[in-house]
Amino acid sequence: MLNSDTEILFPIRVIPSLRNLRGEEWQALIDRLTTAEVEEIGQAAFSLMMVRLGGCAGCNADSFRAMRGCTHCAQLTVKRFKGSDDDLLQLYRDTLEEVIGHLAKYELIEEQ
């Protein structure tokens, strides 16, 4: 079964659908990540965080998750996150630092 909402890894286009699943700080993060002026590094970090949380690397076209689509899977992943909103936001900040560090290591950006 092919679902047009299924991709190999977490798609950035799904980010806006996660806005109303958590509190105000989470909503502010989603708003920042979906504005026209957003830095791509922030979106990349968010995507990596979601890949890790949702287990995207282990998903395949025949899995139940893939049949339901990335949007549904991502929404369930955020809803089912056992930690607090602060924990989830800290996970994003940690992932962002990791991405920046990795890019700086290869001199693709200046470390901030």
Question: Would you write up a description of this structure?
Answer:
With 112 residues, this protein is an all-alpha fold. The chain has one domain (12-105). The chain is 55% helix and 0% strand. It has 5 helices and no strands. Helix 2 (40-54) packs across helix 5. The longest helix is centred in the C-terminal third of the chain and has 21 residues, at 85-105.
List SSEs in N-to-C order. HHHHH
Structural class label: mainly alpha
Query: Share of helix among residues?
Result: 55-70%
- Overall number of domains: 1
CA radius of gyration is: 14 Å
The total of beta strands comes to 0
Q: What ranges have pLDDT less than 50 throughout 5 or more consecutive residues?
A: none
Largest sheet: none
Count the DSSP helices.
Answer: 5
Q: Note the gap between the termini.
A: 44 Å
Compute the average pLDDT.
Answer: 90
Assembly level: single chain
User: What would you call the shape?
Assistant: globular
Beta-strand fraction estimate: under 5%
Write a concise synopsis of the structure shown.
By secondary structure, the chain is an all-alpha fold. The chain has helices at about 25-35, 40-55, 65-70, 70-80, 85-105.
Please give the structural blueprint:
Layout: H1 24-33, H2 40-54, H3 64-68, H4 70-80, H5 85-105
Features of the shown structure:
5 helices; 55% helix; 112 residues; single chain; mainly alpha
